[in-house]
Design goal:
- Strands 3, 4, 5, 6, 7, 8 and 9 form a seven-stranded mixed β-sheet that branches. A two-stranded antiparallel ribbon has the order 1-2.
- The mean pLDDT is 94.
- The two termini are 12 Å apart.
- The longest helix is centred in the middle third of the chain and has 15 residues.
- By secondary structure, it is an alpha+beta fold.
- The protein is built from three helices and nine strands, in the order H-H-E-E-E-E-E-H-E-E-E-E.
- Helix content is 22%, strand content 42%.
């Protein structure tokens, strides 16, 4: 499902707010940002926070950290993420998926770095 989120969030309005990695918008899919990317200030960091269960219908929760150089841009980026995938129905890898989002309050993480986390619950069958 991480790949589904990356694909769903590679929209021009979102990518325009990100630094670039190799010509692409900075989207990191690890819990810890690799050392060689820690200089980036405008990025999305996506990782799963829920377990994968043996149930027929999976409900997976991901966190999308919307990092920017100021609080208002972090909030705008989180709103763009929310607008793109909240209550979205899609087909991915032959399965039907539905996603719901919750935007949390912005967190000051250091000089010129703000993070607005968006929780994404993905239901798939």
């Amino acid at each position: 499902m991480t790949s589904y989120l990356v694909e769903a969030l590679r929209k021009n309005s979102i990518v325009a707010m990100l630094d670039t990695i190799g010509g692409y918008g900075a989207i990191v899919t690890k819990q810890v940002i690799p050392e060689e990317l820690q200089h980036l200030r405008r990025l999305l960091q996506i990782y799963r926070v829920s377990p994968i269960t043996p149930d027929d219908v999976q409900v997976l929760t991901y966190t999308v950290n919307c990092r920017q150089t100021n609080e208002s841009d972090a909030d705008v980026l989180a709103s763009l993420v929310y607008g793109e995938i909240n209550r979205a129905v899609a087909k991915y890898a032959g399965r039907k998926v539905y996603s719901q989002c919750t935007i949390h309050r912005s967190i000051f993480e250091g000089e010129n770095l703000w993070n607005t986390p968006v929780d994404v619950r993905i239901y798939n069958a």
